[in-house]
Amino acid sequence: MGARYAAADLTDFASELFQRAGLPAERAAVMAEVFLEADLMGFSTHGMNRVPHNLQWLVDGDSRAAGEPEVLVDRGNLFNWDAAFLPGPWVVRQALDTAMARVPEHGVVMATIRRSQHIACLGAYLPRVVEAGYAVLMTCSTPSENTVSAHGGIDPIFSANPIAMAAPGEDYPLLFDISMSITAGGYVARAAREGKAMPEPCLKDARGEVTADPKALAEGGSIMPIGGAGHGYKGAALAILTEVLSMALGGYGRADAAAAGDGEANSVFLQVIDPAAFTSLENFKWQLGALQRLCEDSAVAKDAPGVRFPGHRAWLARDQQRRDGVELYPSIMGDLEPWGERLGVALPRAL
């Protein structure tokens, strides 16, 4: 892995870059916080790695630096926004903050967002919600993107859609962010850039042959859904679920001709749940703790690692990296350096 940097230095650096690219200081700070949060928990393809893309969209005018989302529907416990290409991390944070402000009254608040510029890592939004004592479920999709095939098919038709969830626990939260395809497009792009094969055969080439060659995706192939060649019908069904929640429920998606020109703009679904509306928060944590212990106490084969409950490693990494410095993937700072020079922002010093 790469060098370590103080978390505060990385946040200040990214925030200053976004301000120089045209964002107001408050919005730039939110962007920086969201991107860094991903790296703190180990989501290295969708954290600081995405900062150059977002800077380019701002400079080129593909992202709106100012303005508010249009409120299409608002019924108190649910709302639907059109972000019209506002920066994804900022607009999703606004939606989650709105939901969190309303959830003590309603118990459950849901929202959809259409035409949000790429929202990066879903997992990066979860700690803020779970630390407030709420559970959160999120998914997103990209109407103009086609990288994942249906089970048995060759044509790429879905985007590599993630589902993320967090819930407060006794010692640490339940927390996960997983794609409904075997791998996400960011990992395929990284492997292709570095000239490496994927860790397992997770793609189909243009002839329908299963392969681990990342170049297959750019040559007319596709990523297979979770379950792969044998059980991909499960992952394909989940991919459809994510697109129904984020696109169909929001009223904008693959049926819209305009979606073809949306670039990496995302459709988003989010749900914030107050466990105390159903039972006491203490009882909820106790029940979740029992699930955690059942997993962690499970017998494993000789010399095999113990069972990890989703979120444990990410939460430990988050605490450790905030304390000891953030270890960035080696290529990230190299991609940020030209932007620092272009916008006149000094690179942070490695620890």
From TrEMBL:
Keywords tagged on the record? Oxidoreductase
Q: Which InterPro entries is this protein grouped with?
A: Mal/L-sulf/L-lact_DH-like_ah (IPR043144), Mal/L-sulf/L-lact_DH-like_NADP (IPR043143), Mal/L-sulfo/L-lacto_DH-like_sf (IPR036111), Malate/L-lactate_DH-like (IPR003767)
SUPFAM superfamilies, per this entry?
L-sulfolactate dehydrogenase-like
Give the matching Pfam families. Ldh_2
Q: Which GO terms describe its molecular function?
A: oxidoreductase activity
State the family it belongs to. Answer: Belongs to the LDH2/MDH2 oxidoreductase family.
The protein's name is Ldh family oxidoreductase
Natural source organism: Parahaliea mediterranea
Q: What is the lineage of its organism?
A: Bacteria, Pseudomonadati, Pseudomonadota, Gammaproteobacteria, Cellvibrionales
